[in-house]
Structures are given as structure tokens and as C-alpha cells.
Amino acid sequence: MTLGVPADIYLDANATTRVLPQAAEDAKAAMEELFGNPSSSHITGIRARQILERTRSLVRSVLGAEQGQIIFTSGATEAIQIGVFSTLIQVREQRSQTSANGRLLLYGATEHKAVPQSLLHWNRTLDIGNRVMEIPVDRTGMLDLGFLREHAASADMICTMAVNNETGVVHDLMEIEHTVRTCNEQVCWMVDCVQAVGKLRLNLSATTVDYAQMSGHKIHAPKGIGVLYVSENAHLTPLFAGGGQESGARSGTENLPGVAALAAVLRCLDDETDLTFKDLQTLVSYRDQIVESLKKALPSIVFNTPLDKAVPTTINFSVKGFSSKEVMDLFDAAGIRVSSGSACGSALRGSYVLDAMGLPRWRSEGAIRVSFGLTSQDDEISAACSRIEETGKALREACLIPAEEPATAPESPVDGLIQFKYGSMCSWVLIDSKTSRCIVIDPCEELSDRIENLIRCQSCDVLAVVDTHLHVDHDSCREKLVGNLDDLCNRSFRSTDPLGWPDSSSGTAVLGDGRQAEYFVFSSDMVFARTELPGHTTDGWAYFVGKLKDNNCLKPQDIRFAFTGDTLLIGGIGRTDFPSSSPKALYESLQRLPCIVADSTLICPAHDYTHGWSTTLETERRLNKFLARVLDPVMTMPLEQFLHEKRAIDSEIDNENSEELICGLICSHTNENSSIDISPEQCKEFFADHRDSRIIDVRESHEFKFHQDWSVLGLDKPPENVPLTRFSDFLQRLLVTNESSQNRDIIFICRSGNRSGKAADALRRVGVENSWHIAGGIALGGRPNSVSADSVDIEYEI
Ligand code: PLP
Fold first, then answer.
1. Is 13 in the pocket of ligand 1 (CB under 6 A)?
2. pTM for the whole thing?
């Protein structure tokens, strides 16, 4: 695939928008020429006041609010505070007549967080004592009007929204109003109109809405300017007191540049002949084009809102088997800026909006929001569509989604160990490209499509799909996978074993501890062997990949990979407080390990809680004092002592506050020295000075291939690409060949510095000290004109 360096295509307009050139000019004029203070009585002030009042009229026109107050604020969040604060102050004043008993503050379950958080905050701060309660929504995101009917009479405030920011769902305000007012004529009703302005015609004066908000930066005005509408009948208590600006409703000198810019935008919205913003029909046609391309690129896509119930500018979708972060990383690599529907600090945290809609977890965890601006252009949308289709092609080439035509021979054969992760769970696929044979170890349900796609795309002969034990914390998809891959499963390796071991093995090997182990031949020189390794659960087995030597011996130094399930974890050992556990058996299993595997054998666990990917016995012994004592050849910890201490260790596992059931107590090891802090400007010089180092990009191959112009980073050829799914394979080769001893620094890079940082830390953890990473990533240094948001660290709502 040949692609040029992608320029940004911004499809995240619900987060914020580019300021209209005219708005920027007017803001500049308000700073340089019309810079007066609207409160001054001289002519410079009067000119400024004129801008303020003209903008207020425009707001009235766009919101359809001839009556009521229009107050300029710093944004919608502040405007929401004022609405909530004013209502609750009034509630408090009237408290003498009513009691808090059973009184409610209701809000739609999919509201922007600014709403429930304000309700909670002011309810607590003002000591109101009401119950803050969610109004449930249905699977399309529509409010449960039955619930609203049932509770509206007990409510002091009801907060709903006109258009949802994640899904674009349009709420029927007339219907909501009818429900609310039939039950409660007095209740304060606030409607967040932030995502509706410019997309829907609003007529607030014709409604009984008490408070409504809009925000400049969502409609091509700058950040820092917002509007609160307060109806004639609604109560208003200023949040800020001071100079009495905004008729005393909001003191503080007005943000006149922001107001002037907002006016420029509102003029375009208000004038039906103005062509700055696209009309509805055009926006719908843009949406349709994007939807078609998404379907072409990602055939298993599901849309999280019926498109006819949403504004055309927002598309929310998920792709089975892909987390939001994975899709965002891919789109970002292709130069398309979208956002996840969720804060994606963790792969397992989903979108609260989609959760409230009752959609399955995978849809919530994989939600992507594409939102384009009102000023979008035909060529921009076409370019976005071709890029989207390119991402689909890249995923097909990486075997992550099924090929359109079943492949005869894989385009890019994969060889070695592949590690897929879902949260902390690890699933492993071993492929021998020469014989096209593969083995799957510990496949978890969430990764089944991905494993199946890889195996199909590589046309592998599946020898075995095995589990190390019956997992307590998650489902294995072993049987499902065997069923789905029936046509590729090798008939001579049929299995009736509960963990998938083939019924007929090739022979018996002798392990380093003298015990016999069944094996079958995997590749021309490697066998796949197993031995019982109980403890974490009594049905535990370990699998080994290694070379048989004289007399069928599988010696420790000849074992490349050991799949030990949850016996030995990265930074801990498996817990033994499950009903299916045996601490005594774990003690014996641990003591056997050093006789079976070598210090450099890569231990591939069933979980990775710390982004270590995999580990070695030497590393664990060095970092885990308890394990070191258990394995001490001279002063071995006695069994009794082990049982006693192990019980205490397991009791420390925090079952309550973890997102998933943890399979062992983990001590994370932190490295603080792997980070190279250079400014984007220094990037080029840095790489030019480090030509002797191994520069390794850890992005997945489908992301990596989009980055073509490496010269902007001072590199005369592309760096090595070691995707994190191949990191364990890389680690094993590095440890065995001991390439680190050649004194070549290893410098990991990625888009934002997050993944490369983890890779460098993981290498250091296993003793490769000369590994580094570029803090902050190469997004800024690599492409000077593009500032790429790091989705990993963003935790707030936009
Ligand atoms: N309400 C909705 C629906 C939003 O989308 C946002 C911003 O994301 C806000 C409120 C908060 O707006 P502001 O950034 O102006 O405070």
C-alpha cells in the first residue's frame, strides 16, 4: 500500500470545532480595535457594549427565545451550574413549606456528566438532601417516559438534553414537555442544548423550558464562551457576585472577543441564505457516505444508534473484537481524528451512555464516535471515506478482519508467537510459517474472532486449541473456536480432553526434573509438550515449546516458551483461595519449575496485570522476594510456612474494587528511568544522532504502515516494527541471543509515548537496561503540523 503522509481529517466535532475564519477575525478585532470594556460609559465601552447586545439578540433568534434572559458565561458547564444552583437555592428557600423527604432531582441517564455532577455537587454543598436519580433510557437512548411520569410529581428539577453528545440521538422535547407538565407544572426543567444548536431548529419561547445552555466551541466559535437561557418564570441566583455585569446575573468582565466570535457564527446560522454551514440534506448525504465507507471497511460494524434518530453529524459505532482504543489508534495513524465514546484509560471501561442504553459490554467498550462539523466540505468527506476504506484494507492485510476473498496463501505470513490481550487476559497463538501449523493457548471469548481471523487468513493447520486450566475468572472459547475452525482443524489431533490436549500424542519426552511429558511435533525442530502443574486450580497444566535432544530429553535450556497459566504471573503467583485451588500443589509446582525451564525461557502467563507481556523465572525470582524464598536452593521455605504466608497474601487481594477477578496478588515493578524527554523540535536531531541504536516502533503493523515519511524524524529508513502483539516473541529472541549485550541501545517509539513507555519498562524489568522510549511519542515530532490527542490519558467528558 502506498500512502502519502496523511494530513489531519478532523471528525471529532462534538468534542470541539475549528473556529470560523470570520469568527477568528472578529475576535481579533475585538481584542485589537473594539477592545473596550462593555461597562465603560465612554465611546470605546459603548462600542463594546453594542457587540454584546447585538450578539444577545442573535442568540435569541437562534434559540427562538424572544423572552427570558440570555446570559453570557464561560461555557455550557458554567451555564449548567447556574441553572442547577438557582433551582436548588429556590428549593432551599421553599423548604419551610415542603420537606426533603422523597424529593428528587431527575436527570436523563445519558446526560453529559456536567449535569449529574452539578446536581450532586450543589445538592450536597447546599445541604438540600434530595435524591439525585437517573431517568433510564431505552436501547435507542430515548428517555423512559413512563418512569418520568411516575416520578415527575416528586421532582424539584428535571434535566434532559436536546441532542446527545456521544450518540447524536435527538430527544423529542415536545413529548418530554407533555409528560413533565402533565405531572408537575412547577418543576424546573433544564434542557442542555449544546449539541443541538446549528443542527436543530429551536424555539425555546414556545416551550416551558426553564433553563437551556449552549457552548461556543461546539459550533465554530472559540472555547470560553457559552450561553445560559433563563425563562421569564425561572428563578436565578448569581453564582458570581461582583461588578454586576450581565444585569447582575453573572459578574465579571465579559469575554468580548468570545462574544464577538460567537456573533459571527450566529449570523451565519441565523441567515438562511448564508452558505457557510451546510444544510440538513447535505449533512445527511455526508453521513450516508461515511456510513457506506465504514460498512465497506469494517463489515462487522454495528451502529449504536438508529441513524434516523440521530443528528446527521454524529455516527456512533462498534466493531466486534475491537476496543475503542484500537480503532482510534488505527484511525489516528491514518490521519482521521475520531473519539471513543468513552474515557479509555482502561480497555474494560466502557461508555456510560451505551451502558445506560443497555447495549452489550463489547459495544460500550468498543464505541467510536465520528462527528463532523457543519462546515465540512465535499472533498474533506470524500477524503475521509477513502481513508476509512484504507483502514479496512490495512486490517484485512493484518489478518484482523476476514478477507473479502478467502486467501489461498497469506500475503504476509506470520511466524512465531502472537499474544492477544483483552484487559489483563492473554491468549496465545503459535504459528510455524514453514509448515503453516498453529496451536492456540488459553483463548478467551472476547478474542475469539481475532484468533479465528488470524488463523483463517494464514490458512493454518490447527493442531490444538488448549487451555492451561479451567479459568475461574473468564470463559474460554476453546470449544467454540474448534467448532468454527472445524475445516482447518487437523483430524489426527482430535481431542476429547476437557482442556483440549489431542487424544493421540506423538510420544513422551523427559523433562529436566526427570518426569515424563507427553508431546506432539509442532514444527520441523520444535515439539509441544505438557506436564501437570496444579495449584492455582487443581486441573492446571503447563505447556512447553522446545527442542527434543538425545533420548527424547526436553532440557530447560532448550525450552523457548512455557505457558504456565496462572501458576507464575508477572509480579506475582497464582492465588490459591478458590474452591478449585490447592496451595500445597502450587508449592510443589513452583518448586518443579526451575528444574524444567531455564532462566531465559519465556514464561507466558494467562494474565498480564502490569503490561509486562511475559516474564522469566530469573526476573520473577529477582523481583518477588516471596518466590525467591520458596525457590531458594539452600534455605527453601518449608511447606507450612508457605501455606501460612500464602494465605495472608491471598487475603490481600482486593476483590471488591477490581474491574475483574484477579488471579493473583501483583506487585508492580516501576521503572522510572526509561524515558527520553525531548521536545518535538529536538526529535529529528535526536534520531540523527542515534543511528547506531535499534529504533523500534511498537505500533501494530496496520498502524505502522500508514507512517511513511520517516525523514521528518531524521530517519533515513523506516524503523523496525515490533507490534506489541509480537512483543513476547521479540523478547524471547532478545533474551536467547542476548543481543542487548552488543551494547546497542533500544529506543522504542509510538504515537503518544504510552505504548513505547510500557515496552521499554517491560524490557528493563527482564533485565535489558539499555532500553528507552521517547516520552510523548512521535506524533508531534513526526508531523509538525498535527497535534494528536493521546486517547489513553483523557479521562474527562467532551
Ligand atoms: N453538554 C454537552 C451535551 C456537551 O457535549 C458538552 C461538551 O462536551 C457540555 C455540556 C460542556 O460544554 P463546555 O465545554 O462548554 O463546558
1. no
2. 0.87
